Amino acid sequence: MLYDLKHISFDMYEAWFDDFVIFMSKLFAPVHVLRIKYHTGSDYLDPNDWEQLIKIRIPYLLTFDYEYHDKDITDYADDDFHTKINRFTSQFWIKHQWFFEFGINIDEESLHCSIHPYRYIRLESFLLIYPKNFLFRNIWLDIYKHSEIAKYFNKNLSDNIHQEHTNNSSLALLPIIQLCINSSSFDEQDQLFMNKFKSTFLSVPFTRLKISCEAIPIGMFVRIIHLLSNLDSLKVSSLSCIESDWLVKSDGETSFSTSINSKITNVNLDEMINMEQVHFLLHLCPCIQYFQVNISKHMNLKMLVRFILIQASTYNFDLRFLCLSIQNANEDMVRKLQKLIDTEKLLSNYMIKCIGNHILLKSD
Question: What's this model's pTM, rounded to 2 decimal places?
Fold first, then answer.
C-alpha cells in the first residue's frame, strides 16, 4: 500500500473509465487530491460512476479537479447528456463542495466539461461558509480572493456566521453549475454553432455564467441571459461597445428588458470601456446586489460612481456592494468620492474604503 501517495494527476488519451476504476482499485493509497485531464470521448462524464468510485475506492478524497475537452458536439443536445449534468448537483457533490462547469469555445467550435472544488474564504481563524440565503453563498468573484476585503464586507456579519457554522457543521449549500462562453469573433457560422446549445441552456439550471463576448452581438448576449433563468452570478470579461440609442428610447425608457424572474445578484465587469456598458448591465440585472467593475486609471471616477448610485436609486436596485478595481487606487480617491456622496446626498448610511487596488463601497 502506498501510504504516502496523496496527490495524483493524470493527463489521459483513449483511456476507458472501467480501466481507470481497475487502476484505482489496485492502488490502495489514501488519495486526498485527484486531478484529471481527459481528451477523448465522454466516457468519464457519468456522475453516478464517479460517486461510486469515490465512495468505495477514494474515500479520503478532498480535492477533485477534472477537465474534459471535445470537438465532437453531436451528443450534447440530447436529454441523456442534460440529465448527466443535472446529476452533478446531487447531495453527494454538494456535500463534497465540488461543482460542474460546462464550457463553449465559439472560435474553435469545441467544448469542455470540468469539475472543481468550491473556493472559500478564510476569515480570521475559521472557514467562512455563508448561509444559503446570504448574498455571497457561492461567491466566485475575483475580489473575494483578498481576505481583508472579505473581512471588510462582512465585519458586521462574521460573528453570526461563525456561530451558525459552529452550531451546524452540515450547513446547507446550494448547488452550482457554471457555464463558460468564450469568443473573439462572431459570424453567421458561429450563430449556427450557438443555436445547437439552446436546449442545453433551457434544460440545465446553470447558476453562474462567465462570458467573454467582445465580438458577440448584444442582442445574442441578452437572448442567452433570457434562456438561463437560474443564473445568480454573471462575470463578463469583455463586452461589445453599446450605442446609447440602443439602450434608451426617445421617451427615456430602456429599450430592452429581462425576464421578471431574473435572479442575477452578483455581477463582475472585468473590463469597462464606457458608461453605456455599466448602464446595460445594471438594467440587464435589476436584482443586482454586488457589482464589481474593473476600470482604467483614465476613467472619471466621480462621474461613474454618481451614475451608478443615481441609477440604483431611480430604478430601486438593491445594490449593496460596489467594488471599483483601479490601478493605483488611493485614499485621496476615497476622500473625493466620500465628499461627492455626502454633498449630493447619494447615500445616507454607507462605508467606503481603499484596500489594495480596490475602492469598496458598502451601503447599509
Answer: 0.83
In a domain, 86, yes or no: no
pLDDT, residue 246, reads 55
3 state SS of 198: helix
**Domain for residue 67, yes or no?**
no
Give the pLDDT band of residue 26 (cuts 50, 70, 90): confident
Residue 127 CA to residue 351 CA, distance in Å, equals 25
Residue listed under C-alpha cell 473581512: 151
pLDDT at 360: 92
**52, containing H or E segment:** helix 47-57
pLDDT digits (tens, 9 = 90+) for 236-263: 987 877 765 555 554 455 555 544 467 8
- Residue 344 is assigned to a structural domain of this protein: yes
Residue 263 belongs to some domain of the structure = yes
Q: Is 355 helix (H, G, I), strand (E, B) or coil?
A: strand
DSSP calls for 226-265? HH-TT--EEEEEEE----HHHHB-TTSSBS----TT----
The DSSP secondary structure of 94-107, one letter per residue, reads HHHTEEEEEEEETT
- Domain count for the chain, please give it: 1
Whether the CB-CB separation of 328 and 297 falls below 8 Å is answered with yes
174: containing domain: 99-363
With CA atoms as reference, report the closest residue to 177 among 291, 47, 8. 47
Is beta strand 358-363 parallel, antiparallel or unpaired with respect to 350-355? antiparallel
Look at residue 114 and give its three-state secondary structure: strand
